[in-house]
Amino acid sequence: MSLLCIDIGGTSLKFALCHNGQLSQQSSFPTPSSLEKFYQLLDQEVARYSAYHFSGIAISSPGAVNKEKGVIEGASAIPYIHHFKIQEALEERLHYPISIENDANCAALAEATLGAGKGASSLAMLVLGTGVGGSLVIDGKIYHGAHLFGGEFGFMIMNDRYQTFSQLGTVVNMAKRYSAIVNNGKDYTGKAVLALAEQGDHLALKEMQVFLQSLAIGIFNIQHAFDPQLI
């Protein structure tokens, strides 16, 4: 069975065919600026990929995906995909069965079935980007939680200033803190701050330590709260 896979991201929409766990025919486009343009791009690409005779469409998306309602709840950098019955709308428009899941959950499920977590009874996954995303897989199934917050590790409070794991546990925010303190008009990347730390820059070393300690504390908390076989 072949599926058309679509990843909805803040900067790009990615398409690929998946057959027996292998991806092919990948393509990528800038994320459309409106729902109408989003629909137009999907119409175009689904028509093009239909030559490969796929049987359904699997979509990974930001936000809290309510699979029972077919609605993407929460918020993201793509506001037009939220808070309406998008799964039903897409099935009626594209004439294929469609499944939608949160992007971090998709990544975790891929690791659990095809990657480093294959064969594990449980795993927790951390996705470090601008913030910290995450997911829990138990007995091969995503744990969504009663309110769709299962695996949202980035909201963990890390200190008495109520700073979150997302604020402290990524190199992106480490670089933002460094740039704000140095205040020389330059926006440093995480890679640049880590390089400065290796050169002995005291402020870079301090911010790197905040990042690493926060990441370690977050992983420690996840391990002792859920006790997954793998992280």
Summarize the structure.
By secondary structure, the chain is of the alpha+beta class.
- Tally of domains: 2
Q: Terminal Cα separation, in Å?
A: 30 Å
What is the number of E strands?
A: 10
CATH topology of the largest domain: Nucleotidyltransferase, domain 5
What's the CATH H-level superfamily name of the largest domain? ATPase, nucleotide binding domain
Helical percent range? 25-40%
CATH architecture of the largest domain: 2-Layer Sandwich
Q: Unreliable segments (pLDDT under 50, ≥5 consecutive)?
A: none
Major beta sheet summary:
5 strands, mixed
Structure description:
The chain is an alpha+beta fold and 231 residues long. It folds into two domains: 2-101, Nucleotidyltransferase, domain 5 (2-Layer Sandwich); 116-226, Nucleotidyltransferase, domain 5 (2-Layer Sandwich). 37% of the residues lie in helices and 25% in strands. The chain has helices spanning 35-49, 86-94, 103-114, 165-168, 171-182, 190-198, 202-226, and strands at 2-8, 12-19, 22-30, 56-61, 64-66, 71-73, 98-102, 122-128, 132-138, 141-142. The chain has a five-stranded mixed sheet. It has a three-stranded antiparallel sheet with strand order 8-9-10, sandwiched between helices. A hairpin with a 2-residue loop joins β9 and β10. α5 packs across α6 (190-198), α5 (171-182) runs antiparallel to α7 (202-226) and α6 crosses α7 (202-226). The two termini are 30 Å apart.
Features:
Nucleotidyltransferase, domain 5; 10 strands; alpha+beta; single chain; 231 residues; 7 helices
Write the layout of secondary structure elements.
Blueprint: E1 2-8, E2 12-19, E3 22-30, H1 35-49, E4 56-61, E5 64-66, E6 71-73, H2 86-94, E7 98-102, H3 103-114, E8 122-128, E9 132-138, E10 141-142, H4 165-168, H5 171-182, H6 190-198, H7 202-226
Parallel strand pairs: 1-4, 4-7
Antiparallel strand pairs: 1-2, 2-3, 5-6, 8-9, 9-10
